[in-house]
């Protein structure tokens, strides 16, 4: 083991909660407790926001049995934060690290969390304060660079596969058009995962979702209406999966072209998650433009919203890898690394095997990964290669039987 500084370790959670983010939290805490140079393992309440406000909890005082119960519980047990610290904010974070004798800083989150680690690490080095900063990956969007996939995504993908399975059966029982809006501002991995609901049997080509729209492919409202009309004419029904972040050829979110007055967050981003505006607007578009016998057809829309993130039926692969990325980050610290992030590398697809790899914070910070072209099939579907990529991540899915 390297000659490590003696001091406390801090762990925080950032961004959207997931079904397995607490697996990472607990695995990190338990691994840190075994490092002789770590005096206390501190949890930051609501991420760095809590750290700068001295809202911290001594995780060393929590019984291990209770920690393991927390690990199996969805959501962010310490509370999360949407803060995107700039350099001045990171100066406050570093000051708090000094105050609490924190020498090891672990932040569980997406690309913004990685950027926070990067800035704090640079400030610490520049000031001569010995601090090791490590990013533990997490995001249901699956949009972190250099990773095959990210913890949180497989469980959310599992939820979507099951939700679309049951919803497709509902749609078949009372035929009509059903539009489901899925999370994904810039990347369509989650929406694409709905394709797993089709299954592999003889009815796969008739099972929903029949149309899939992702942000990587420009969305055309007129073409969308024609797609729905064509599927409805063939099957007498149509189930649609659409990313909340679908955009037109000019790069404008479709939600902003169909709906006025959408709220924006502190960073100027239009609020897309948790609002029904896009689904309602697309449903209205179909009602007005698709007629059978001169009459409007039955159309309904749902926005899955935050349900996707923390459903308490995680993918077994996801739970395991969420622990592995955290323990790998602690091992990086134990061998003397000053900073870094973790990427999941797929070494075999069938049977599925993965490994953890150290990457630079700058490889992840502030960057967004998009679905590659080979995962797309035309303008309204995902490819077979995407289904092959996604299937081993979500765990066993039930077989749905029909008469």
Explain the overall architecture:
With 403 residues, the chain is an alpha/beta fold. The protein has 2 domains: 186 residues, Rossmann fold, CATH 3.40.50.450; 176 residues, Phosphofructokinase domain (Rossmann fold). The protein is 37% helix and 18% strand. It has 13 helices and 13 strands. It has a 7-stranded mixed sheet, sandwiched between helices. It has a 4-stranded parallel sheet with strand order 7-8-6-11, sandwiched between helices. Strand 4, helix 5 and strand 5 form a beta-alpha-beta unit. Helix 1 packs parallel to helix 11. The mean pLDDT is 93.
- Radius of gyration from CA coordinates: 22 Å
Mean pLDDT across all amino acids: 93
Poorly predicted regions: none
Instruction: Report the CATH C-level class of the largest domain.
Output: Alpha Beta
Cα shape: elongated
Compute the separation of the termini in Å: 63 Å
Secondary-structure element order, N to C: EHEHEHHEHEHEHEHEHHEEEHEEHH
Task: Give the neighbour order of strands across the main sheet.
Answer: 3-2-1-4-5-12-13
Q: Give the strand tally.
A: 13
- Work out the helicity level: 25-40%
Give the CATH topology of the largest domain.
Rossmann fold
Described by strand count, sense and barrel closure, the largest sheet is: 7 strands, mixed
Q: In the CATH classification, which architecture of the largest domain applies?
A: 3-Layer(aba) Sandwich
Count of alpha and pi helical runs: 13
Number of domains: 2
Strand % is: 15-25%
- Structural class, from helix and strand content? alpha/beta
């Amino acid at each position: 083991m390297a000659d490590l500084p003696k001091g406390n370790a801090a762990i925080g959670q950032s961004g959207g909660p997931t079904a397995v983010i607490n697996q990472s939290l607990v695995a990190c805490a338990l691994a840190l407790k075994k490092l002789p140079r770590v005096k206390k393992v501190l949890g930051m309440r609501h991420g760095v926001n809590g750290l700068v406000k001295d809202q911290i909890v001594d995780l060393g005082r929590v019984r291990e049995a209770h920690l393991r119960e927390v690990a199996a519980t969805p959501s962010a047990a310490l509370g999360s934060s949407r803060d995107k610290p700039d350099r001045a904010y990171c100066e406050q974070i570093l000051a708090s690290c000094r105050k609490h004798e924190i020498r090891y800083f672990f932040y569980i989150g997406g690309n913004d969390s990685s950027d926070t680690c990067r800035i704090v690490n640079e400030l610490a080095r520049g000031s001569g304060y010995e601090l090791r900063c490590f990013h533990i990956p997490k995001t249901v969007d699956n949009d972190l660079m250099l990773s095959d996939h990210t913890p949180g995504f497989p469980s959310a993908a599992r939820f979507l596969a099951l939700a679309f399975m049951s919803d497709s059966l509902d749609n078949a029982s009372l035929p009509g058009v059903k539009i489901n809006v899925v999370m994904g501002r810039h990347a369509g991995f989650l929406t694409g995962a709905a394709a797993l609901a089709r299954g592999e049997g003889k009815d796969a080509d008739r099972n929903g979702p029949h149309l899939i729209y992702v942000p990587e492919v420009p969305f055309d409202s007129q073409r969308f209406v024609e797609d729905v009309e064509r599927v409805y004419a063939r099957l007498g029904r149509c189930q649609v999966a659409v990313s909340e972040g679908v955009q037109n050829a000019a790069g404008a979110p479709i939600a902003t072209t169909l709906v006025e007055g959408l709220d924006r967050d502190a960073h100027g981003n239009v609020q897309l998650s948790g609002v029904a505006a896009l689904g309602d607007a697309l449903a209205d578009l179909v009602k007005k433009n698709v007629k059978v016998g001169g009459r409007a057809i039955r159309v309904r829309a749902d926005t899955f919203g935050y349900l996707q993130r923390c459903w308490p039926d995680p993918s077994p692969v996801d739970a395991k890898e969420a622990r592995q990325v955290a323990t790998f980050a602690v091992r990086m610290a134990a061998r003397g690394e000053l900073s870094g992030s973790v990427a999941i590398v797929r070494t075999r697809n069938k049977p599925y095997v993965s490994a953890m790899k150290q990457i630079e914070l700058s490889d992840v910070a502030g960057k967004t990964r998009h679905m590659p072209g080979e995962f797309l099939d035309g303008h309204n579907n995902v490819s077979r290669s995407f289904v092959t990529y996604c299937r081993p991540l979500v765990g066993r899915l039930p077989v749905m039987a029909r008469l």
